[in-house]
Amino acid sequence: MEDVKPQLLKVTIDGIEVEVEPGTTILQAARKIGPAVAPPAMCYYQPLKGSGGKCRACLVRVAAGSAKDPRPMPKLVASCLTAVQDGMVVENETSPQVIDARNGVVEFLLLNHPLDCPVCDQAGECDLQNFAFDHGKSTTRYEEDRRTFEKKDIGPYIQLHMTRCILCYRCVYTADQITNKRVHGVLGRGDASEIGTYIEKAIDNDFSGNVIDVCPVGALTDKTYRFKNRVWFSKPVDAHRDCPTCSGKVTLWYRGEDVIRVTARKNEWGEVLEFICNTCRFDKKKTSDWTIEGPTKISRSSVISANKYRADTIKPSFGQRLAAAEYKPIHDERDTSQLDIKQLAPERFAKVLPSAMEPEP
Amino acid sequence: MAIKILTEHINVPGIETFDVYRKQGGYTAVEKALKTLTPESIVEEVKKAGVRGRGGAGFPMGMKWSFLAKPEGVPRYLVCNADESEPGTFKDHYLMKNIPHLLIEGMIISSFALGANKSFIYVRGELMYVIHILEKAIAEAKAKGFLGKNILGSGYDLELVVQPGGGAYICGEETALLESLEGKRGNPRNKPPFPAVKGLYQSPTVVNNVESIATTPWIINNGGEAYAGIGIGRSTGTKLISASGHINKPGVYEIELGVPVEDFIYADEWCGGIRPGHKFKALVAGGSSVPILPANLALTLANGEKRLMSYESLSDGGFATGTMLGSGGFILFDETSCIVRNTWNFSRFYHHESCGQCSPCREGTGWMEKVLHRIEYGHGHQQDIDLLVDVSKKIEGNTICPLGDAAAWPVASAIRHFRDEFQWHIDHPSEATQPGAVYRGEMALV
């Protein structure tokens, strides 16, 4: 019997058409097109069921509901939860209303989130930092006192700095779905809500460390790594080991010869698809514990790529092409004959600097 | 003589007991429904009646019922939303306290129409004495064979449960209510799926307001067309209005929809006018979440016609010149009221009651409250007024549930209609912070 393939649905996002399977959300469809049109997501985390819809960062405008019913949706919708319809037209970056709403979300999230990136362990790999860079402003209109909390150790390896928390609920879903001893959740209401553990309990199960990876900001941090390094000074390397508890596929973060941090591997959307156990994360910090696979692929736009060069990304011709693009002939009318300066003939640059051959005005 | 559908017998001594309620013609609608009607025909009657949800949204009740999914082998639920806690709204409480059997009769008919064998009345936890009244009435109805197994020999079973809520305003939002009823934190769910498809325990569920459900016995006894004949246009039937503020006779009144606002305020039958020696300044027509209107716009439409107590007339002109009937929480302010203080007070409530799940509501409601507090206490800056407008716009329509809108509308409308008053607070901080200080500049007093 032949497999019956579901009929694909056509959806247009920012003018780009893509075909997706029924049940796909707008966010997933946009991610299929690529990062240029993918809405930001602070609370949505694909491997976690029930995540999404809370931060409102991924709001988009549905300009046409479907081919059958082309009426626009009255309000902006959360793209991470809204399933696509055949013929749906979505405006993301092209809608001023969407951009305005996102600017608002950044402003709201930053009301109580301290801009302590210079001392935060998440700096350089923080979703809120990226979101604010794309949609935020350099000033704030908020004059009131910000909420602050004491730092809490919620287990032998994890520190909770609630002041930075944006209440995305990701860690709550993680604890609920991948561990069997959930002891933490959200307490309180409104802007007084906070992540907390059940009456001073600690999060101490085998997979507790994964709450660190899913945290989009620096609220949950790895105590074995805190303040050891800046992420852009470390060298990420993919590695694996034969682990009886998890897949054992990790990223090792080196500084010099030392493994200073172990994390689960993240995909291009910053999401962990295979969660790792605490033994791999916290106890295996020697190169000899691991089989090294090779350098982790990091986006060139990421700050983690700073000062790292790879044969496939840095071509020798790059510098020459850059110089050619920015070449400007110098019009120096001074008499240089006495200075022993010789102007080289433009022909010498002709191959890589075509602009040098242009006649002077 | 004004027609009464819900409150006709409310002043009869002992009406809270089964026997007295029965003597007044109670439970005849249940007999008629279970013995002579089918669930489908009851839904049709409710549709014909054109009754709109009385919880605030005004969505047609019959249409909501017809959306209910009916998969085989899956239970269906009816949940009565009795979590009334909007500032200024106290009509459901009045109905349940005084005539509980009317709600129970409505629950039996509605549950039968929807095919629900277990229904819930979710009551705000603070109203414990109302919960006791309802539980007593349920026990009486059960003893008389109107609840439980095989009601009146019809083969239909219904169990009715009264569930006290935790006392959070957000639990009045239908999906948060369902979460709370399931024993979880009362956070609203993202929609879709709507409760009609996946509601309580992931089963098809209808959530209706107390007043909406209490209309069904009358509709069954008198027919949907008779109900539709009352009221005006698409605002059919009667409405309970909880009137408060600076009026001579605060209380709960049942009015035929379409009564002029002016008549409702000044007639002796209802509010009995503004308190002596004072003038009408502003009106919140449907509970604290709806936009506030200045006196002139509250009484007349933009075209000069009289404004009526109906869904359409109150919303005439959108939010620029109109408001909403909402839940019927009618609050009138005279010239001694400070709009800034009042707006801050409402804002304080929504800040406190935000569940904190989505960022615009969690952070925005607190921000608005703090800025309003600053203005009220003489520390406002010139840019604060536009800041409030901008923040309210960033919240409105961008949240998971309507609490964000409910928090944004009072602030935006107060500035829209009473900007001078906010400006006066900023320009005259020492004067504005004096006890009882109220802006006496140009305003449309009636």
UniProtKB/TrEMBL annotation, chain A:
Domain 4Fe-4S His(Cys)3-ligated-type as annotated: residue spans: 97-136
Domain (2Fe-2S ferredoxin-type) ranges: 7-96
Entry GO MF terms: 2 iron, 2 sulfur cluster binding; 4 iron, 4 sulfur cluster binding; metal ion binding; oxidoreductase activity
Entry keyword Metal-binding: yes
Keyword Transcription regulation tagged: no
UniProt similarity note: Belongs to the complex I 75 kDa subunit family.
Broad class of where this protein is predominantly found: membrane
Protein name: (2Fe-2S)-binding protein
Entry GO CC: membrane
Record-linked Pfam families: Fer2_4, Fer4_Nqo3, NADH-G_4Fe-4S_3
UniProt KW keywords: 2Fe-2S, 4Fe-4S, Iron, Iron-sulfur, Membrane, Metal-binding, NAD, Translocase
Highest taxon of source: Bacteria
Organism of this sequence: Spirosoma foliorum
InterPro entries the record matches: 2Fe-2S_ferredoxin-like_sf, 2Fe-2S_ferredoxin-type, NADH_UbQ_OxRdtase_ferredoxin, NADH_UbQ_OxRdtase_Gsu_4Fe4S-bd, Prok_molybdopt-oxidoreductase
SUPFAM superfamilies reported for this sequence: 2Fe-2S ferredoxin-like, 4Fe-4S ferredoxins
PANTHER family per record: NADH-UBIQUINONE OXIDOREDUCTASE 75 KDA SUBUNIT, MITOCHONDRIAL, RESPIRATORY NITRATE REDUCTASE
Compartmental location: Membrane
High-level lineage: Bacteria, Pseudomonadati, Bacteroidota, Cytophagia, Cytophagales
Needed co-factor(s): [2Fe-2S] cluster; [4Fe-4S] cluster
From TrEMBL, chain B:
Catalytic activity, EC: 7.1.1.-
Keyword Translocase (UniProt): yes
Cofactor(s) the record lists: [4Fe-4S] cluster; FMN
Keyword set, alphabetical order: 4Fe-4S, Flavoprotein, FMN, Iron, Iron-sulfur, Metal-binding, NAD, Oxidoreductase, Quinone, Translocase
Reactions that this protein is recorded to catalyse: a quinone + NADH + 5 H(+)(in) = a quinol + NAD(+) + 4 H(+)(out)
Coiled coil regions, renumbered to chain: none
Gene Ontology biological-process annotations: cellular respiration
Pfam families noted in UniProt: Complex1_51K, NADH_4Fe-4S
PROSITE patterns: COMPLEX1_51K_2 (PS00645)
Keyword flag Translocase: yes
Enzyme class: translocase
Gene Ontology molecular function, alphabetical: 4 iron, 4 sulfur cluster binding; FMN binding; metal ion binding; NAD binding; NADH dehydrogenase (ubiquinone) activity; NADH dehydrogenase activity; quinone binding
Classification via InterPro entries: ComplexI_51kDa_subunit, NADH-UbQ_OxRdtase_51kDa_CS, NADH-UbQ_OxRdtase_suF, Nuo51_FMN-bd, Nuo51_FMN-bd_sf, Nuop51_4Fe4S-bd, Nuop51_4Fe4S-bd_sf
Ranges for domain NADH-ubiquinone oxidoreductase 51kDa subunit iron-sulphur binding: 340-385
SMART domains to which the protein is assigned, alphabetical: NADH_4Fe-4S
Function: NDH-1 shuttles electrons from NADH, via FMN and iron-sulfur (Fe-S) centers, to quinones in the respiratory chain.
Similarity remark: Belongs to the complex I 51 kDa subunit family.
Name of the protein in question: NADH-quinone oxidoreductase subunit F
Organism of provenance: Spirosoma foliorum
